[in-house]
Amino acid sequence: MMEQNRRPRGASPGGDTGIDEAMIERLVRTFYGKARADDLLGPVFAAHVADWEAHIAQICAFWSSVTLKTGRYSGRPMARHLPLPVDARHFDRWLALFEETARKLCPPAAAARFMAHARAIAESLELGIATHNGRLLMRGERYRMDAPGRN
Ligand code: HEM
């Protein structure tokens, strides 16, 4: 539907998708409930996040900046993830849980917007983590911690 792509002047950046702060918080809280209970992701979060309310507030600010352009987040996501013991498996699980949650809680256009950002950011984090661990990935190649590096 073409008219959905046109936004009236002054409308909020998330306007045509229905994304707002309340939707972001529901998505983030539900996602972290699943991620913390997950056998692969749970232990990583447990080892690195001490104050969950502070973390959730930061992640909400992050998604608010990304989808609503509010500028509420100023942080360094890449630097935070570089030391984490994660690879393609973790990112695939993260994206699967995030997508399952977004599709359940958000209208389709909003879920699509969240997923487009999440996939792009996950890819760049995975690339950064691989490089940080001495692996230069070829285009489309995934990072596996247990695979011997060829470079
Ligand atoms: C393998 C999947 C992932 C794991 C296990 C993971 C884990 C973590 C952990 C443990 C922290 C806290 C780090 C610290 O405070 O020292 C963190 C922070 C954060 N994560 Fe992730 N993450 C993953 C993927 C992602 C993705 C795909 C995004 C974005 C789409 C994301 C966005 C963030 C942001 C914005 C922060 C806050 C960084 C800051 O302190 O400013 N993460 N993550």
UniProtKB/TrEMBL annotation:
Origin superkingdom: Bacteria
UniProt xrefs under InterPro entries: Globin-like_sf, Globin/Proto, Hemoglobin_trunc
Keyword vocabulary terms for this entry: Heme, Iron, Metal-binding, Transport
Keyword Transport belongs to the record: yes
Binding site for heme: 55
Iron found in the keyword field: yes
GO MF assignments: heme binding; metal ion binding; oxygen binding
Gene3D superfamilies: Globins
Protein name, as recorded: Hemoglobin
The species this protein was found in: Chelatococcus composti
